[in-house]
Amino acid sequence: MELLSGNEAIAQGAWEAGCGIGVGYPGTPSTETLEAFAKKEAVYAEWCPNEKVALEVGVGASAAGSRVLATMKHVGVNVAADPLFTAAYTGVNGGLVLLAADDPGMHSSQNEQDSRYYALAAHVPVFDPSDSQEAHDFTKAAYALSEEFDTPFMIRSTVRISHAKTPVNTGEKENYQPKVYEKDPTKWVMMPAYAKLRRVELDKRDAALSSWVEECPFNIIEQRETSKGFICSGAVYQYVRDAFPEASVLKLGVTWPLPKQKLESFANMVEDVYCIDEASQYLSSQILALGIELSQTPHPLPAAGELSSRALRLAFDDTEATTEPEAKLPARPPALCAGCPHRLVFKELARAKCIITGDIGCYTLGALPPLAAMDTTVCMGASISMAHGFELSYGESEHAPVVAVIGDSTFAHSGITSLLNTVYNQGVGTVCILDNRTTGMTGHQGNPVNGKTLQGRQTRELNLEELVKALGVEDVATVNPNDMKATRQAIKQALEAKDRLSVIVFRSPCVLLRDSFVAQAPYYVNGNCTACGSCISLGCPAIEKNPADGTASIEASMCVGCGQCSQYCAFEAITQSEGGR
Ligand SMILES: Cc1ncc(C[n+]2csc(CCOP(=O)(O)OP(=O)(O)O)c2C)c(N)n1
């Protein structure tokens, strides 16, 4: 018995099933799965530049005969949707399992999606574990089933399942012998003539899966008192058990396809049957579509956000709201770290009154006050393409300079094609690539730009400047973003060149990178401070405003000695302590 997070349990289950190849792109809450898998004995695992590439590598390895695990967060499934939908047609050779980790409540995501809609639309069976044991067992079982039914399987988790640790009975590793690849264009070449044939196979498979799911032991009826019955899956099962321990439950471990007969017999068994959904209507809409009537909770459940046992109890008895107040914790808004190399870029872009199309990464925090220097954030890679869209819309009219800001990992993920589009279509504007030498936001994963691979194999770093030039950008500069004057100057020059596209690569390591960032002696505020607030406006968490007189002070334990703030002080009031740390 081991205490494992859902992510670790999925990695363990895959490994026990003889899965030898893991691919993915980081994204909360999925990231630790591939990291845990990469540490297993005799496996190969790699981070890919994006989820589409990862799944395609996975489809290739499966076609060749290996068992494969592909991991990503829910929005990553959007990126991988193209190969996913067609892999459902080709089917597999070695078992192929895709982890789609959803984030109801958007703890760390740009939207709230339910990946089971993908399973439904792509005709890919989906397992929905409700704890780490099920995450382990379902994943392990998915490989043989993937081969039996000739389809990828999806494991859909949510943040609570991925991150909560619960006990797991682990098992032995299967001695899986990779399958032999045999050339078969009718299965692997999805041109219309063959795809039409595979479509017929897919329909036959749907029918076979619909029979299998009725008997699948992962859908469990727990009969207790029968006045109320709950249909649920995943983390919601835990909330239901906590809120209504006496009630009967149909726990669905498979949420596509659904076991129609089992659902019907459960509905007949209880007086009122409720389907409890979290942040989407996936389950209830599918059950209603099967013709099964569902009761409405007396008070509506929240349509969005994470559920809780409290929210569930309130849906039946809202008087409890007054007796059990929600914990009121002080707000702790996220902020760029003290010394973050992204900070001055935003400060200077805001100073230049730019329209800033942003992207996804730590630097998205540049949108928050006091920097408040971002106009848009939509999805990975969108900064550069949206900047081009702004420029197209403004055309020749007088307008504020448009600047795209994108991180190194995000640029490799999907920024490169966006930049290629701007070059190809003779777009103008400025692109800032914030190369902090890592995929910071998701916990310092390797990427093609920093040249660090998941299992520490030797490889090469991508030369961003050379790549950008090769794409056709002539105006390329490299700047240290901790140097205020150099940053200001580079931005000024790029903005003045209105008739062409400029790229500035801002390069300085993330302050949390232990192997490349060296903290310097901290700075302190001396008696020259006039309370002008200039340093405070940087939003550095190490700088505080003294409530009594408005002067600044620096918390030495947080200061990493970057010196950014001292460059903004017109009174020489910020000086570095003598000696090292
Ligand atoms: C399609 C998609 N995949 C993954 C993620 C998760 N994610 C958010 S930001 C990020 C990477 C950020 O790295 P980088 O661009 O280098 O910026 P940094 O955080 O280092 O500043 C990732 C992987 C996501 N939001 N969307």
Describe this protein's structure.
The chain is an alpha/beta fold and 581 residues long. The protein folds into four domains: 2-215, Thiamin diphosphate (ThDP)-binding fold, Pyr/PP domains (Rossmann fold), CATH 3.40.50.970; 220-321, Rossmann fold; 343-507, Thiamin diphosphate (ThDP)-binding fold, Pyr/PP domains (Rossmann fold), CATH 3.40.50.970; 523-576, Alpha-Beta Plaits (2-Layer Sandwich). Helices cover 36% and strands 17% of the residues. It has 20 helices and 22 strands. The strands form six sheets. Strands 3-2-4-5-7-6-12 form a seven-stranded mixed beta sheet, with helices on both faces. A five-stranded parallel beta sheet has the order 14-15-16-18-17, sandwiched between helices. It has a four-stranded mixed beta sheet with strand order 9-11-10-13, sandwiched between helices. Helix 19 links the parallel strand 17 and strand 18. Helix 10 (235-243) crosses helix 13 and helix 16 packs parallel to helix 17. The two termini are 44 Å apart. The model has no long low-confidence stretch (mean pLDDT 96). Bound molecules: thiamine diphosphate. Thiamine diphosphate binds at residues 25-27, 73, 75-76, 79, 110, 360-363, 380, 407-410, 436, 438-442.
Short account of what is shown:
This protein is an alpha/beta fold and 581 residues long.
CATH architecture of the largest domain: 3-Layer(aba) Sandwich
Task: Please compute the radius of gyration using only Cα atoms.
Answer: 27 Å
Shape: globular
Bound molecules: thiamine diphosphate
Question: Which structural category fits the helices and strands?
Answer: alpha/beta
CATH topology name of the largest domain: Rossmann fold
Helix content: 25-40%
Q: How far is the N terminus from the C terminus?
A: 44 Å
Strand content: 15-25%
The counted number of beta strands is: 22
Q: How many separate structural domains? A: 4
Mean pLDDT over the full residue set? 96
How many helices in DSSP terms? 20
Q: In the CATH hierarchy, what is the superfamily of the largest domain?
A: Thiamin diphosphate (ThDP)-binding fold, Pyr/PP domains
Which CATH C-level class of the largest domain is it? Alpha Beta
**Which stretches are poorly predicted, pLDDT < 50 over at least 5 residues?**
none
Largest sheet: 7 strands, mixed
Strand order of the largest sheet: 3-2-4-5-7-6-12
